[in-house]
Design a protein that fits this description.
The chain contains seven helices and ten strands. The protein is an alpha/beta fold. The two termini are 15 Å apart. The structure holds 2-amino-2-deoxy-6-O-phosphono-alpha-D-glucopyranose (GLP).
């Protein structure tokens, strides 16, 4: 596990966007899996800026998204699909057919999850970017999730329901699916992440802190700012 400490959210976003641009420069058809939430927003802004300057070409990349609420309509402003198009996809030249987001509006959630899992198997993730929940969740793999878990429908933890202001369930890529990624970068910014970050770095692997399973991946990098690292 590599730990990169940065000053603040801006530095975290600068570094992460630079890494993504470098990876795409090395492999134009990079398969990247992306998170939502506040953590990657600055990174996405930078990617858009660099794209406009002609510094990066997204035309051959494939994207997967980690999770989606369930049930949620595709054009609902709460949906992660809406978030991704508004904050990134609508503003760069990624091809629509190369974007993969779990359908939170599908009646057949089991089939939806199985298809997603199969698609990832056919297009192994080169680079997985992750945020971390205050309770240590990754994607919507809440405390108690199994290391062997695959893409599935999950109940949200009470703290996630209140923090995210969403009462339903969610679809999430599983821990085992995430662990197969060739390279994983986890972003943590702000004081409210300090406890989960300290648990991840200093503690044992524990299913009550799902992010701790990431230590099983040989190519894991944590990018943490001062506040998120304040309990180390
Ligand atoms: C959310 C999402 C995760 C995200 C995490 C952290 O609930 N399900 O994919 O990484 O929680 O969110 P934020 O970056 O807003 O703190």
């Amino acid at each position: 596990m590599k730990i990169i400490k940065v000053k603040d959210y801006n530095e975290l976003s600068d570094l992460t966007s630079k890494i993504i641009i470098k990876e795409i420069a090395k492999k134009s058809n990079l398969v990247i899996s992306l998170p939502t939430g506040k953590s990657p927003l600055g990174t996405y802004k930078n990617l858009i800026k660099e794209y406009k300057k002609g510094q990066v070409d997204f035309s051959r990349i494939k994207t997967f998204n980690l999770d989606e609420y369930y049930p949620v309509k595709k054009n609902d402003k709460k949906s992660y699909r809406y978030y991704m198009f508004k904050n990134l996809f609508d503003k760069i030249n990624v091809k629509k057919e190369n974007i993969n987001i779990l359908d939170g509006d599908s009646k057949y959630f089991k089939k939806e999850c199985q298809n997603f899992e199969n698609k990832i198997k056919k297009n192994p993730i080169d680079l997985q970017i992750l945020g971390i929940g205050v309770n240590g969740h990754i994607g919507f793999n809440e405390p108690g999730s199994s290391e062997l878990s695959k893409t599935r429908l999950v109940n949200l933890a009470p703290e996630t329901i209140s923090r995210n202001k969403y009462k339903g369930k969610a679809l999430t890529v599983g821990i085992s699916t995430i662990l197969k990624s060739k390279k994983i970068i986890l972003l943590a910014s702000g004081k409210d992440k300090a406890k989960a970050v300290a648990g991840l770095i200093k503690g044992e692997i524990d299913k009550n802190l799902p992010a701790s399973f990431l230590k099983k991946n040989k190519n894991l990098t944590l990018i943490i700012d001062r506040e998120a690292g304040s309990l180390l």
